[in-house]
Amino acid sequence: MDREQFRAAAHSAIDDIVDYFDTVPERRVLPAVDPGYLRPLIPENPPADPEEWSQIQEDVDTKIKPGLTHWQSPNFMAYYPASVTYPSILGEMYSAAFTAPAFNWLCSPACTEMETIVMDWVAKALALPECFLSTSENRGGGVIQNSASDAIATIIVAARERRVRELVLAKGLKEATPEYENCKMEVQPRLVAIASDQTHSSAAKGALIAGTRFRSVTARLEDNMEMTGPRLREVLEQCDKDGLVPYHLSLTMGTTNTCSVDRFADIKAVLQEKPEWQRIWVHVDAAYAGAALVADEWQYIAKDFAEGVDSFNMNMHKWLLVNFDASVLYVRNRFDLTNALDITPTYLRNPYSDMGTVIDYRNWSISLGRRFRALKIWFVMRSYGLNGMKAHIRKGIDLGNLFTELVRSRSDLFEIVTKTSFCLTVLRVKNPQSPSNGANGSSDGVSLCKPDEVADGLTKKVYELINSRGEIFITSTIVDGVYVIRVVSSNPLAEE
Ligand code: PLP
Question: Which residues get modified to N6-(pyridoxal phosphate)lysine (predicted)?
């Protein structure tokens, strides 16, 4: 493809993409294809001779689009949304054109410096405490990761290294000696990462990757599925009894099941009770709901992160208008990351890195090469402005509340199972034989639901019927033994 062919092909692709967005509301959200549908449609071997772009593009239309689940459809109300906007697509185009895998500052100073600037912009937009800014005295800062799972695995490894180092140094051993290394290996099997049973599975996976144990704190419907201080204390005390060392705690702002928010203040108070518990690395996973922090009325939540929180992550690609992937991770102390991850062979050395005056993001993440993702975040923030971003969040919140009101107005049929939180409504179909399963009188109209086979069966039937029609896509889950339907109203194209 030469420059003129590229120009024509790109114009045609852009036209097709715009048409796709225009028509996506009319498309069936779930594809009507069976597993294996694609193989018979694609030649067994790659073409020997070049093909025309028009042929390739036609195949996107006839072979790919019919097999897509349309995440951008306003009828996609499953999981959490994956947002995309025109400015973020433009950012991807430039990033692809530059393809500069800037692992060190020298590899492309604009990529590194734009990432640092944009991460500070995002931190300010979310009203994160000063300690997470790159300009903070405590040397905090942010880095863009592929996904929340990558971010979480990365900080769990950093947390392990920090705690092991503290424990070994406390024994009076000198670093980089055989005794130090041996002691590290003795200490590590006692380490435990802790999260609630509502925490995303990436926390357990992070502990697995870090080669440590994992224990979970039970969450209950009576606590709105939030992690509470007393339930955490029970797990910490059990670890003490078992001779284990908790080193990482994952808290969530917006769990995947019900979008519950863990009780940060109570939990931090519990961690103050013992000196060893104060050494636990506290992480806040706000992968989805963290986006709401751009709106002033939610920023009070971020005040809880000013003290006692070591790191925070949020996926702009879920609800904040940037396409996948744009997962932002902030740490209070960048040296916690770089001490764990900086391995510098001669071929990566250069005078700027050696002087220590520049950021080399390869030491803030697992991968070496990295995409220029800051560009699309910069484009989106400039194209929308903070006011546009706030309006987007508020629209979703209003729709979620409206949907919940509609469900509640049919309390003869449905029960709201947990408090509606950041556009997620969690409901079940009532057991008609069980009138006692009504609202518990709380102002938010939440029923204190108990496991109930009839309600489970009816809810599952309704859920399967809706998805089988393919017009609307929703997901279901089980919380505290209760089968529920989740409906998410934060899709950017969703309308009343
Ligand atoms: N954390 C929470 C709360 C999530 O809801 C999810 C995914 O939905 C993740 C982490 C994992 O996100 P990712 O796909 O970016 O790894």
Answer: 318
Please report the pLDDT score of residue 440 as a whole number.
Answer: 52
Q: Is ligand 1 within 6 A of the CB of residue 218?
A: no
pLDDT for 219 equals: 98
- CA nearest ligand 1 atom 5, residue: 256
Query: Distance between the two ends of the chain, CA-based, in angstroms?
Result: 45
SS3 at position 301: helix
Distance of CA 331 to the CA centre of its chain: 16
Whether 91 is covered by a domain: the verdict is no
Residue 196 lies in a domain: yes
Ligand 1 in reach of 422 Cβ (< 6 A): no
Cβ of 198 less than 6 Å from ligand 1: no
Contact 204, 214 (CB under 8 A): yes
Same domain assignment for residues 484 and 404: yes
Half-sphere exposure of 87 (CA within 13 A, CB side): 17
In the predicted model, is pLDDT for residue 438 greater than 60? Answer: no
Count of C-beta atoms within a 10 Å radius of residue 384: 18
**143 and 122 within one domain:** yes
Same domain assignment for residues 434 and 310 = no
Are residues 33 and 175 part of one domain?
no
Residue-wise pLDDT tens digits, 222-278: 999 999 999 999 999 999 999 999 999 999 999 999 999 999 999 999 999 999 999
Residues whose CB falls within 8 Å of the CB of residue 287, separated by 6 or more in sequence, listed in order: 80, 148, 200, 254, 313, 314, 315, 318, 327
Q: What is the pLDDT of residue 352?
A: 83
Ligand 1 centroid to Cα of residue 254, in Å, is: 10
Report the residue among 147, 202, 322, 323 best suited for mutation to probe ligand 1: largest number of ligand atoms under 8 A from its CB: 202
Domain count across the chain: 3
Mean pLDDT of 279-292: 98
Give yes or no: residues 235 and 142 share one domain. yes
Distance, CA 167 to ligand 1 centroid (Å)?
31
Question: 75 in a domain, yes or no?
Answer: no
Domain end: 356, 381, 406, which one? Answer: 381
The ipTM, to two decimals, is 0.98
Task: Give pLDDT, residue 267.
Answer: 98
Task: Note the pLDDT of residue 435.
Answer: 62
What residues make up the domain containing 43?
3-68
Residues 68-113 have pLDDT tens digits of 999 999 999 999 999 999 999 999 999 999 999 999 999 999 999 9
Strands 327-331 and 424-429: unpaired
Cα(66) to centroid of ligand 1, in Å? 27
Query: What is the CA(496)–ligand 1 centre distance, in A?
Result: 26
Q: Which amino acid is at 180?
A: Y
d(CA 149, ligand 1 centre) in Å: 6
Q: Check if 149 has its Cβ closer than 6 Å to any atom of ligand 1.
A: yes
Q: Is 287 in the pocket of ligand 1 (CB under 6 A)?
A: yes
CA of 80 from ligand 1 middle (Å) equals 9
Domain shared by 204 and 125, yes or no: yes
Quick one: tokens of 410? 């049919």
